[in-house]
Amino acid sequence: MIESVNNEKIKYYAKLNQKKYRDEAKLFIVEGEHLVEEAKKRNLVEVIYSLEPLDGAIRVSEQVMSKLSALSTIPKVLAVVRMPEKREIKGNVLLLDDIQDPGNLGTIIRSAVAFGIDTIVASYNTVDFYNLKTIRSSEGMLFYVNLLKGDIEEFILNNKDKYTIYNTNVVGGIDVSDIEINTPFALIMGNEGAGVSARIQKLAHKNVYIPMNSKCESLNVAMATSIILYEFSKRR
Amino acid sequence: MIESVNNEKIKYYAKLNQKKYRDEAKLFIVEGEHLVEEAKKRNLVEVIYSLEPLDGAIRVSEQVMSKLSALSTIPKVLAVVRMPEKREIKGNVLLLDDIQDPGNLGTIIRSAVAFGIDTIVASYNTVDFYNLKTIRSSEGMLFYVNLLKGDIEEFILNNKDKYTIYNTNVVGGIDVSDIEINTPFALIMGNEGAGVSARIQKLAHKNVYIPMNSKCESLNVAMATSIILYEFSKRR
Known about the structure:
The structure is a homodimer. Chain A is of the alpha/beta class.
């Protein structure tokens, strides 16, 4: 049992709550039973820490748990997890242009898995995939999709002959329920405030929009992503 | 200009950050220019406070603003707003069974307006409509829908001859893209963890589900609500 917050391993792992150290170590922390189970299924667990005796876990004191945890209420169990290996892109792709909110990113990942996206390419300015809030709101689905950071413009320029590139806009373009879906596709979703940047919009093959009540200017980006991916999954 | 945090009005309005006082006064606070504008459009503004000179607003010091604001970064402007009058129900209805997360409730409200819901009836245990996070994530759309708290079971029992009641479930029932939509309808969405409670499920006329990848157990409730309301709006 580890009781001291000055234990070298604990001090090292506690730093994983900062992006810089996560990127360096290629490790991150997941908190709570459900996420630990998902990480185990994917064979990505480095070590499990638990407040109570638990098979395969190292017991720790509440002080140690709260040093490792980023939550105000500490979990009973958490795990240090290896970042999944990046894979070659082999299916439909979601391109994220500067998504800011970690909760939005997490629910986008969850819906992307639900509707059969193989790879998410997020711009460098998109919030971190391994942010605690992102992990939590993905409900562990981040283990089931190929997560890449990259230059979206470059991705499009390199893949526009292989992929049909769909851009989204609040108005203009084709009603999402009327559009013809060509696979493989890449769908571009934009920043919460600014939408998809103009230089990226221009590179798309087609524009889609979701028809809605005129009182409502726009949908939350995670809602819009879910609806469009749902429509695309239905009709391909 | 009000500079003192001990000003009686300021002390009174600052209490509106607690639900108890909001319910008593039938007032709540909206922060930031966009929400203040939406409240003005609906003629619901009681008073506007601003850090800078602004037509129709009372100027306040940063100390006063931070006493009124619930945000870590204070806004330039905020308003004390009257709760909209409850109206008679006259269109399609969304029934919320114990939604817990204020962000989810806000985005549900936003999507409900986007897809033509007239009234939301939320169970008494659902998070407050006038919670700051709910207001923010509704993007001001809470001013465009009739918001009621009530007993969902009672609503269904009183309205099941007039309304087609749709229940949602992760599995089972009819694929949402195949279901026939009868209006007026009432759609029931359930708690983030527990779903719709069994006694309410039993009262529904029809069950709908969203088909998805088997890796994904369920969608976020706000995503599921958005997709179903989108489908319903398309085909009625």
